[in-house]
Design brief:
Elements (H helix, E strand, L loop, with lengths): L4 E7 L5 H7 L1 H4 L4 E6 L4 H4 L10 E4 L4 H10 L5 E4 L4 E2 L2 H12 L5 E6 L12 E4 H7 L10 E4 L2 E4 L7 H11 L4 E10 L2
Parallel strand pairs: 1-2, 1-4, 2-3, 6-10
Antiparallel strand pairs: 4-7, 5-10, 6-7, 8-9
């Protein structure tokens, strides 16, 4: 199942990369492809031979988060992509269920809430997508200050308070007729 998955991990000033690695060890040692984009602080992945999860691609580039993600998407060869930030712990069951939903064509993207839940907030940084959909929709670099983004009855102004990559990508997906699901698992932020 994990052979069809690429994990895209942008790293920049991680709060505790050793804890991220230890808490996500099973996922990182899975058969999934890994693309690590290191903009500072990710050298443990460069030397990961002994840890059993040598990445498919390790790229050291000092670039913004959105550009790091886009780099990962452009180098993905699998049908599914997992976004995970280096300060997140995921339950393995979320990934397994997300892949089942995506393989059974029940959605184009699968989100997960964080513990504690923030009302009305979905995280894009931790989500699982059909790769062809994500590559087609991902153009976050084109967001201009003052641009309006609409999701349902809510309208945000680009780069203003309450607007983020999450809001932008969910709006792109929903406005394209795509389906977004949120599974009942909870991710945790590392401190």
């Amino acid at each position: 199942m994990f052979n069809d998955l690429t994990i895209v991990i942008p790293i920049k000033k991680p709060p505790n990369l050793d804890l991220f690695i230890s808490e996500n060890r099973t996922l990182l040692q899975s058969s999934a492809h890994k693309i690590i984009i290191d903009s500072g602080g990710g050298r443990q992945f460069r030397d990961a031979h002994g840890l059993g999860f040598l990445p498919l691609i390790y790229e050291a580039k000092d670039i913004p988060l959105w550009e790091a993600r886009k780099f990962g998407y452009n180098h993905t060869v699998t049908p599914f992509i997992l976004n995970i930030d280096c300060d997140v712990v995921l339950p393995l069951e979320y990934i397994e269920d997300a892949l089942l939903h995506l393989q059974n064509d029940k959605a184009e993207a699968i989100a997960i809430h964080f513990e504690p839940i923030k009302t009305g907030h979905l995280e894009f940084g931790t989500s699982t997508w059909k790769a062809n959909v994500l590559r087609k929709l991902y153009d976050y670099s084109r967001v201009q200050h003052g641009e309006f983004v609409k999701i349902g009855a809510n309208i945000w102004t680009g780069l203003s308070s309450g607007f983020c990559e999450c809001t932008y990508m969910w709006s792109k997906l929903l406005n394209s007729g795509g389906r977004l699901e949120t599974l009942c698992y909870r991710a945790k932020h590392l401190k």
